[in-house]
């Protein structure tokens, strides 16, 4: 199933592409059943131990299937290790002379911070300016997904997405902005409920031309300065 974005050609230059994440989710859910039973069994065993150590009774009814559920959830949340993000882009790389900014904004992302293994979630905005090649639009979202479904820090996630697109398509520039809330800050530690973290990474003309960068920031409609 392919994403059918509403494409609006703004005055001669811009492709604005609202992102629909539902399709990726479906693909991922299909994949959930493919996890190795051996891995799930090992994880379940350890989660049962963890429940006991935390003072719970893993044999009480409500918790009987919890270790297995957690194991499957964690396997799902870290399935990005099995993905090859660069290959995702190369699998849909097309020759095209379009040389204006392509933006995929508001890509939902859910990841796990590698320090606490607690979720961080938010949105990614990705742009590139083609240099002879474009990629399928849904592939950009899938690259975000492939890197997000691992233990991460937001800074590295941002740079990995940028570098992957730069290496696979060799465009004139790549821009990535991620805005995310971190549960490890909200539920524990400083317990700041409303703080969001913004990271950005640029290459090529997004670095060298301030106007191009500003145009991108303006188009993602963000509160960024
Ligand atoms: Zn953390």
Descriptive report:
This protein is α+β, with helices and mostly antiparallel strands and 225 residues long. The chain has two domains: 8-28 and 84-219, GTP cyclohydrolase I, C-terminal domain/NADPH-dependent 7-cyano-7-deazaguanine reductase, N-terminal domain (GTP Cyclohydrolase I, domain 2); 35-77, GTP Cyclohydrolase I, Chain A, domain 1, CATH 1.10.286.10. 41% of the residues lie in helices and 24% in strands. It is built from nine helices and nine strands. It has helices at 22-32, 37-53, 66-77, 85-90, 137-148, 154-169, 183-186, 205-208, 210-219; strands spanning 8-10, 14-18, 93-95, 102-113, 119-129, 133-135, 151-152, 173-182, 197-202. Strands 1, 2, 4, 5, 7, 8 and 9 form a seven-stranded mixed sheet that branches. Strands 3-6 form a two-stranded antiparallel sheet. β4 and β5 (119-129) form a beta hairpin. α2 crosses α3 and α5 (137-148) packs antiparallel against α6. The two termini are 37 Å apart. The relative contact order is 0.14. Bound molecules: zinc ion. Zinc ion is lined by residues 113, 115-116, 118, 182, 184.
